[in-house]
Amino acid sequence: MTVMVAGQIARDLVLTVPAVPGAGEAADAHERREMLGGKGANQAVALAQLGVPVALLGVAGADETGERLLNQARKDGIDVSSVPVRGESALIVELLDADGEWRYVQHLPESSLLTPDDVAAAAGRLANADAVVLQLQQPPEALLAAARAARRTAGPHGDPEAESGTTPRGPIVVLDGAPGDGALLGWADVIRADEQEAGLLAGAEVGTEERGLRAAREIHRRGPWLAALALDDGANLFAWSARSPWGTDGHVVIPGVQTTTADTTGAGDSLVAGLVAALLRGDDPVSAASGAVAAASSTLGHPGGRPGLTPESLSRQRALIDDALRETAG
Ligand SMILES: OC[C@H]1O[C@H](O)[C@H](O)[C@@H]1O
Fold first, then answer.
1. ipTM for the complex shown
2. Nearest CA to ligand 1 atom 2
3. Mean pLDDT (the chain, rounded)
């Protein structure tokens, strides 16, 4: 079993400040953390921590930083043999204030972005993976190329041949974010979107369970059979269609349970990884959704997006989620 994550590899520099300085002001950071970052790398790290064999397709800089990032990825157990190395490393500076509010300043050289040629070079690996995970930090043409390469044996949703049930479907394609390009959505099986992104996809505000469900139905109509949408009370809605492996329409809302939030950065990345791991294990929908939220919650307690998923943190969060679900049911 392998998951291919096609996404960004960056050096994340997280500076914890009492307050973000205004124009003409300076702030002393009381903590500084540097780490392998970018949504692609974060998701790959989280998958590796969850015990899922994972390969990364993203660009590493041909500089000292790029070398450090790749070494870290290798130490994390990620296969980086398909990573092109060129140019300057991508750098993302996160300013995290005392309220846990973050601001990013990023320098993403053009050379740090995936091209369709990079994707073509990894086409065989994409097609043979069990899941392909994409985020929107890469150019749309590269993402579309990756989705097409992954599903070369079947067309996008809406293609009668692909929907016939007789065509081999290839890997599960998972998309993190709301693509401006509707074509990309048609190639995805699973989508994760925060509130704002879900609103963009649905063309209407999402926030409550009812509105989220409406958005999910629209999303299912356009392609993905599973939508994981953030609601405005910190809960997550997971809505699946009959085209899902579970074969029925259904949904579950998992309440947000983590009490201490140092930084929300990276929580979505861990959620995606938790969901992919659960889908590949063949979990039932409630268990898959709970596993995804447990992974996300485990990432909230520390500054920066790097996941720190341990069996202990996951089972602590799982127990809280199970309690919350029992409470909702009772
Ligand atoms: O999803 C969080 C990530 O997004 C930003 O790109 C940072 O790299 C951070 O680690």
1. 0.98
2. 266
3. 92
Q: How far apart are CA 181 and CA 48, in angstroms?
A: 30
CATH of domain 3-10+39-91+113-329: 3.40.1190.20
Of 9, 11, 12, 138, which is best to mutate to test ligand 1, by the most ligand atoms within 8 angstroms of its C-beta?
Answer: 12
Query: 164 C-alpha to center of ligand 1: Å?
Result: 38
Question: Closest by alpha carbon to 4, among 125, 112, 121, 114?
Answer: 125
pTM of the predicted protein model: 0.94
Q: Is the pLDDT of residue 159 over 60?
A: no
Helix (H) or strand (E) holding 294: helix 285-298
Other CB atoms within a 10 A radius of the CB of residue 251 amount to: 18
Burial label, 17 (beta-carbon count in 10 A; 0-12, 13-18, 19+): middle
In this structure, which residue's CA is closest to atom 5 in ligand 1? Answer: 38
Going by CA atoms, what residue is nearest to atom 6 of ligand 1?
38
**Residues with Cβ within 8 Å of residue 14, at least 6 apart in sequence:** 31, 32, 33, 34, 35, 94, 96, 263, 265, 303, 304
